[in-house]
């Protein structure tokens, strides 16, 4: 096994980023396995971040055969983020080549964390307040306003309140992996339910326009589907990913594994070289 720790560009940080959003934020390491095929191994590497004001790490490797490029491009094919923290990222690769961490330089400054969190909390609190007021008004006047649309509206208000409560309760719970994943699953389900209920509102409005005098109501089937279908989607997603895609130490969002090619225009120039062989 041969490992080379290289800064193979004249300046690692001055690389043309993908879509103007990503740049290299680690050393660029080269691995070569002699005497066997790389498909027999899974290579796990821990990269220390060079700069602290970067976010959204991707495990990248240099693809010399990337289409529409002269010298190649950065790609995330055959790699995944195992764990990500403020100071480092752990990557897993199923091949050997030149590796590095690609990150977005547009990270929120630490001094903005508290004001943004406060604004989010106040905004969610105000929304919850008026959602509760909406529910109370409809509860008092229910005999006068009871329709299929108001039933859907009440379900939507409850779903939105649950979404805000889960968000506020878990906004700082990113250190514990189990809690973080649970919050991500809950938010995934609630947001899908919110959108499903909004779709149900639209379906009811279209039905009112197309069928002026409907003979039967579909509200019970529609609302049931709005809660069950998102649960099925979340269950399938969690089962397929084994909860590995739900959150990390920085975020409790659903992460999707995608392939990115990051083109660069700089020529590859040898820099500092530290080599280890065994």
From TrEMBL:
<dbReference type="InterPro" id="IPR017981">
    <property type="entry name" value="GPCR_2-like_7TM"/>
</dbReference>
<dbReference type="InterPro" id="IPR046338">
    <property type="entry name" value="GAIN_dom_sf"/>
</dbReference>
<dbReference type="GO" id="GO:0004930">
    <property type="term" value="F:G protein-coupled receptor activity"/>
</dbReference>
<feature type="domain" description="GAIN-B">
    <location>
        <begin position="1"/>
        <end position="109"/>
    </location>
</feature>
<keyword id="KW-1133">Transmembrane helix</keyword>
<keyword id="KW-0812">Transmembrane</keyword>
<protein>
    <recommendedName>
        <fullName>G-protein coupled receptors family 2 profile 2 domain-containing protein</fullName>
    </recommendedName>
</protein>
<dbReference type="InterPro" id="IPR057244">
    <property type="entry name" value="GAIN_B"/>
</dbReference>
<feature type="transmembrane region" description="Helical">
    <location>
        <begin position="183"/>
        <end position="210"/>
    </location>
</feature>
<dbReference type="InterPro" id="IPR000203">
    <property type="entry name" value="GPS"/>
</dbReference>
<dbReference type="InterPro" id="IPR000832">
    <property type="entry name" value="GPCR_2_secretin-like"/>
</dbReference>
<feature type="transmembrane region" description="Helical">
    <location>
        <begin position="153"/>
        <end position="171"/>
    </location>
</feature>
<feature type="transmembrane region" description="Helical">
    <location>
        <begin position="222"/>
        <end position="241"/>
    </location>
</feature>
<keyword id="KW-1015">Disulfide bond</keyword>
<dbReference type="GO" id="GO:0007166">
    <property type="term" value="P:cell surface receptor signaling pathway"/>
</dbReference>
<keyword id="KW-0472">Membrane</keyword>
<feature type="transmembrane region" description="Helical">
    <location>
        <begin position="113"/>
        <end position="141"/>
    </location>
</feature>
<feature type="domain" description="G-protein coupled receptors family 2 profile 2">
    <location>
        <begin position="116"/>
        <end position="231"/>
    </location>
</feature>
<dbReference type="Pfam" id="PF00002">
    <property type="entry name" value="7tm_2"/>
</dbReference>
<dbReference type="GO" id="GO:0005886">
    <property type="term" value="C:plasma membrane"/>
</dbReference>
<dbReference type="Pfam" id="PF01825">
    <property type="entry name" value="GPS"/>
</dbReference>
């Amino acid at each position: 096994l041969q490992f080379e720790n290289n800064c193979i560009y004249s300046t690692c940080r001055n690389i043309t980023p993908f879509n103007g959003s990503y740049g290299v934020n680690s050393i660029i390491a080269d691995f070569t396995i002699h005497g066997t095929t790389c498909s027999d191994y899974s290579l796990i590497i821990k990269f220390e971040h060079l700069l602290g004001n970067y976010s959204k790490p991707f495990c990248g490797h240099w693809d010399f055969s990337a289409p529409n490029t002269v010298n190649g491009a950065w790609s995330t094919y055959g790699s995944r983020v195992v764990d990500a923290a403020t100071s480092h990222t752990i990557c897993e690769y199923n091949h050997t080549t030149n590796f590095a961490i690609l990150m977005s330089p547009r990270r929120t400054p630490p001094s903005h964390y508290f004001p943004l969190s406060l604004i989010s909390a106040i905004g969610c609190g105000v929304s919850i307040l008026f959602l509760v007021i909406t529910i109370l008004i409809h509860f008092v006047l229910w005999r006068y306003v009871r329709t299929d649309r108001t039933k859907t509206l009440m379900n939507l208000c409850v779903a939105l309140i649950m979404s805000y409560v889960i968000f506020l309760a878990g906004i700082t719970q990113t250190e514990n992996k189990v809690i973080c994943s649970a919050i991500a699953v809950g938010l995934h389900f609630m947001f899908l339910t919110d959108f499903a209920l909004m779709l149900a509102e639209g379906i009811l409005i279209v039905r009112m326009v197309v069928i002026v005098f409907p003979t039967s109501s579909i509200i019970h089937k529609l609302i049931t589907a709005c809660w069950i279908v998102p649960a099925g989607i979340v269950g399938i997603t969690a089962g397929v990913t084994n909860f590995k895609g739900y959150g990390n130490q920085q975020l409790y969002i659903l992460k999707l594994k995608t392939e990115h090619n990051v083109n660069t225009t700089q020529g590859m120039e040898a820099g500092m070289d530290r080599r280890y062989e065994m």
